[in-house]
Model the fold of this input.
Amino acid sequence: MLHKLHYISQGQTPEVHIQHIASALNAGVKLVQLRLKNLSNDQYTEYAIQAKELCGKFGAQLIINDNPIVAKASSADALHLGLDDMPVSEAKKIVSDKSVGGTANTFEHIQQRCKEGVDYIGLGPFQFTTTKEKLSPVLGVSGYTNIIQKMKAEQLTTPVYAIGGIELKDIESIIKTGVYGIAVSGLITNSNNKEHLVKEINKILYHA
Done:
């Protein structure tokens, strides 16, 4: 089972992504997604291998964003696919036994992802975030409540991560909607006391 706190890498350069991943792992994060764009497969694989080695030292799991070839080559634990990325069925042929997660913005996307057989869903955005260039309409707590209720009614049980501009003060109300966990980026990257923050987040996620 994947950890409830999911850190997504960010930074101006791939090297900075790796530095931020190292800091997050040091602070106690156990699930990391390497999210690099506009690199060749060879370059992406090189950084993915570095990230995987770091995760191995901390007993953490690594997800690769958007590239099944890199996920396989780096022995990552999972692959995450956006709505415009390769179809899940094709990606699964490449990564075989790895977990595959998928992005969703609406209940219709959730239905699609469940049909595709993803292992988890990143549902968002919760609120405005500068991390993504093309932002879908924000969901807020009411959006998650509505979608999770519809999932229960249709007996869809795929774990859902809330994502997009989440702050510490938002986590308790988000978890109460019935989502499985949260995916964050800036919240951890920009923290001056990451270890304390990660403890606080996990306290809420596992005891809310």
